[in-house]
Design goal:
globular; alpha+beta; 10 helices; Arc Repressor Mutant, subunit A; 8 strands; 2 domains; two-stranded antiparallel sheet; homodimer; Beta-Lactamase; six-stranded antiparallel sheet; DNA-binding
DNA sequence: GAATGCCGTTGCACATAGTGCAACACGGGC
DNA sequence: GCCCGTGTTGCACTATGTGCAACGGCATTC
């Protein structure tokens, strides 16, 4: 299945930073000859997974990609609602928010939203970062059983930019995240950047991380705590909505912001 | 590139109705042996384009599909805004709305939203319908140069359920749609169902159709005209926003609802 | 305007890569 | 227990995709 593998390697070249790619760029990045790349991308275009700009001859994601992406969300609307929550969070905090999910040992960024604050950590959708170096990634990992966490981190290729954790430190941090229900990244993703992250899952298996990043020298302690509180409120809302058992447990460490009184307004359509 | 072609044929089996597929179902539908299908889907899973349910062994769109779908929207947010407009339309009319685009000679449904009205034409996202049998498809086709319209319809495989148009009728209908700026489908998609559709394009090439369907016996003439008016208003807003020249021209037939007074509020972030 | 470099695409011969067949393992039903 | 349906794996064969080289198009350069 080499050609199929190459095809997906080619597809993975596309990201928020590189929405369009020339044949030769793809050939370089996945180490195949330009002739093969030309045929491969041509086939993907014929199938509708890619579109080709008729004038520049460059490729970009196509219609088939759009429908498949839409289908990922499957039955739930967790992704949609999570994104709304995130947008609101960014609006109120002024800092950058990320919606992402776990891909092996990496955090895969799905959606970002820039806040108004001038100093920003810009990460494009499609970017992959070692999960353990991010707040969202840690929050997602902490939901997995211990052996799987170790397995995922073991398999992840070593990366000089983001070091691998010590077994001891890993254990402690995971325990802390599980107890509190949120994860912190203290300049671990990027120097000078602090981040807070939570993870929410729908009925079966699909988990997303919501995270918020800001400069360490930016908002003061009080403000940071407010952001964390807002993030946790969002987590509670989503957790309640999608029956995420973990979020019931987290009520202990931080009290649940609004104890459910009768008569919540339903904004979603009935099935 | 046969295996890549098969891969995309397999991917095209997924739709709103069939979000999960078993190996054998895919094998049947794209006419390959189960062994090949097993290897093929396995490769797509390894690449992240598909996920496999560990217990049922069935496949569904994966993370890579999600990012690629997100990238389709590219620089513009036409899709997002069009969807918002559509949702509002459905809310106000109570009937079903569709967001779709042209795929060869077919209309490819991207997003649907059910209204409250009990009698509904249910079309799942991912569905393909001969464009000429739909209001949205006609609106999209009418934007193309004449030879290309004929070419696309010529290439489309014959389909007993939806007949091909006569050259004469095609010519007239296209002219009518271009003059008015919207298309109608009078029980052409489905018996007893009437639909109205418009098409909007962003700066370069990407065009979406917004359409609304309702039973012929449902809303009265007045109400239908209101729906059409609302749809056209949405078209004007989107057309203005994305510089769609066609929508300036359409002002003649139906007067533009709100002539642009100074000081439009900018909701999009600056680049 | 010719020359140069870069890019995308196409023919061709070879060897790899993917195919179908058959067999196996697994899980549920009459 | 026996089935049937399903998903996966070994194996031999051939069809398929590969690299190489050459070509045409398009800018940029001199």
């Amino acid at each position: 299945m080499k050609s199929v593998h190459n095809a997906m390697a080619a597809l993975r070249c596309f990201s928020g930073q590189t929405r369009e790619l020339a044949v030769s760029r793809v050939a370089d990045r996945i180490k195949i000859t330009p002739s093969s790349a030309s045929r491969l991308l041509g086939a993907l275009r014929d199938g509708g997974l890619l579109d080709q700009d008729p004038v520049t001859r460059r490729y970009r994601p196509g219609r088939l990609a759009l429908v498949l992406g839409g289908l990922y969300q499957a039955h739930t609307k967790l992704r949609d609602l999570a994104q709304s929550e995130l947008d609101a969070l960014v609006e109120r905090s002024g800092h950058t928010g990320y919606l992402s999910l776990l891909d092996g040992g990496d955090l895969l960024v799905i959606h970002t939203r820039q806040g108004g604050y001038p100093l920003r950590l810009v990460v494009e959708p499609g970017a992959r970062i070692p999960a353990w170096a991010t707040a969202g990634g840690k929050a997602l990992l902490a939901r997995l059983p211990d052996p799987e966490i170790r397995e995922r981190l073991r398999r992840a290729p070593r990366n000089s930019q983001w070091p691998t954790p010590s077994p001891r430190g890993l254990q402690d941090e995971i325990a802390r995240i599980r107890a509190r229900g949120h994860a912190l990244a203290e300049q671990e993703t990027f120097p000078g950047i602090r981040a807070v992250g939570i993870a929410v899952a729908d009925g079966e298996g699909r988990a997303f991380a919501l995270s918020l990043s800001f400069p360490v020298a930016g908002p003061d302690r009080k403000a940071q705590d407010r952001f964390l509180g807002m993030l946790r409120e969002a987590g509670h809302r989503l957790g309640d909505r999608f029956g995420d058992a973990a979020w019931q447990a987290y009520t202990a460490s931080h009290p649940k912001p609004r104890p459910p009184r009768g008569g919540r307004s339903e904004t979603m359509e009935a099935p």
